[in-house]
Amino acid sequence: MNPAVRAVTDRIIERSRPTRRAYLDLIEREREIAIRRPAMGCANIAHAYAGTDEDRDALKADAGMNIGIVTAYNDMLSAHAVYYRYPELMKVWAREVGATAQVAGGVPAMCDGVTQGYPGMELSLFSRDTIALSTAIALSHGTFEGAALLGICDKIVPGLLMGALRFGHLPMVLIPGGPMPSGLPNKAKAAVRERFAEGECGREELLEAEIAAYHTKGTCTFYGTANTNQMMMEVMGLHMPGAAFVNPGTKLRQELTRAAVHRLAQIGGRGDDYRPLGLCVDEKAIVNAAVGLLATGGSTNHLLHVPAIARAAGIVIDWEDFDRLSAAVPLIARVYPNGSADVNAFEAAGGMPYVIRELLGGDYLHRDILTIAGGDLGGFAEKPVIADDRLAWQPVGDSGDETILRPAAQPFSPDGGMRILQGNIGRACIKVSAVERERWVVEAPARVFDDQLDVLEAFKAGELERDMVVVVRFQGPRANGMPELHKLTPPLGVLQNRGFKVALVTDGRMSGASGKVPCAIHCSPEALPSHDGGGGAIGLIRDGDLIRVDAVAGTLTALVDPAEWAARLPAERPAPVSGMGRELFGMFRGLADEAEKGASAMLAGAGL
């Protein structure tokens, strides 16, 4: 094992020892005393079976595993529209191996692409906690011996795992749906967005470009949070091998889902290959998730999601761990926004089997994790194919395109391109894998805003035509739910294209699609005070303060006289806004902990 990866793993194991022990005790206790169908009251069982006809006799006989399907289906979200027919097919496939399946419950699945820049985006992060709670409700009936989790996109996979891990004595499989076929290239789409921001094209041309890019069912084809989720499930061993990026509606996609159902029926507690979720998601699997994130240039949102998933399993990972891993793990993939290729081109070049083979070969990934597929992670270095009308796996070859995927020994960069910044403003993260090296350091006067829409108005008014660090505060989880500020990407990109030195500092999030502009995000502590402490120093910044964002030295500093800095009072919080259901999430905002712990209200409220 690479020494740095081993050292971080040991650090996490030692730090997590008491909480992980408590978690393992929990799932062992749940396995021993949890409700089981044969012991349930007759009226309870009758209620559970009343909605089924074909499987009722098998359920009464307790003949095999009953699989709970937790689905994030809706047909507003392209990635999840593919799940429409999955449950009925999965019931058929369960019967093939003597099992049964029932839809245990549905979870919400909102689309950040729809809500970007609008009030609904303030519900987005806490939809993850809502999904976790909904997953717990779905699995609370005690009538399932395993679960299939149907979810793909940004908050859905983390939320499913956070809820499911509290039922970690059950075996579970994540089942993806795959990316849509390629439409308008992402780089061409981004160019139209920048032209629109410049006033060089109208809404009709922009809309046509967007629809040409997002044109059918499946995940978006850029390497944002949704597709980073799928990468993570592969390196954690929670998918069938190679399932992440196979297109919907293909024979291969169908057979991978069928195989997942069959495999789930084999890894239950009644057999001799028991693989409960809580043992599959251990410290090594969490480190694999972080390594995969860094090696592929994945979404910055996972600096929130990985810690939250880990906490649900009694594991503590912090940003220092990511920083140390990033210094050691090579960047071996270039997928938009870190390159010109989309995930379909990534898959064609070798995809996740290639990535896993290279990272295992370089000793960056833990091979000896408990995967749902049987064996160790080495089995995930093979590519699924249909051969003689049957699903099979074969060794992956060399990279099909070294502008997209490179060997670990000849990477695009020797490090993972994610850095932690620290200074008198606080602690933040920055993704530099898509940022040109000469832009890694920006020192310029601050222009301070409390709302991203005010930034857009200032841009349109021509007020931002200079070197500048845009500061957008009161965007943290306690202030307004920590929305993504993706609407800022085109105007900041335009300013950078005009030759200005530009950077962003915010206690909010950027999209998983953020790219060429240096952005110090998730700044913590956030501007809004917590119930037990003052607000973060980002709330002390004033217009004109000289700010230094330095991804080389790892610093985030307001170059203000220390005495003056210490004497400043924090900025006044903007008036809270209601509507669009935001007032219903006041409890979540009030309980939310800091970004580095995962920005979760549910975990903080549960004392995890």
From TrEMBL:
Keywords: 4Fe-4S, Carbohydrate metabolism, Gluconate utilization, Iron, Iron-sulfur, Lyase, Metal-binding. Residues 66-377 form the Dihydroxy-acid/6-phosphogluconate dehydratase N-terminal domain. One of its GO terms (molecular function) is phosphogluconate dehydratase activity. It catalyses: 6-phospho-D-gluconate = 2-dehydro-3-deoxy-6-phospho-D-gluconate + H2O. Binds 1 [4Fe-4S] cluster. [4Fe-4S] cluster binds at residues 153, 220. Coiled coil: none annotated. Residues 404-599 form the Dihydroxy-acid/6-phosphogluconate dehydratase C-terminal domain. InterPro entries: 6-phosphgluc_deHydtase, Dihydro-acid_dehy_C, DiOHA_6PGluconate_deHydtase_CS, ILV_EDD_C, ILV_EDD_N, IlvD/EDD_N. This is Phosphogluconate dehydratase. It comes from Sphingomonas aurea. The gene is edd.
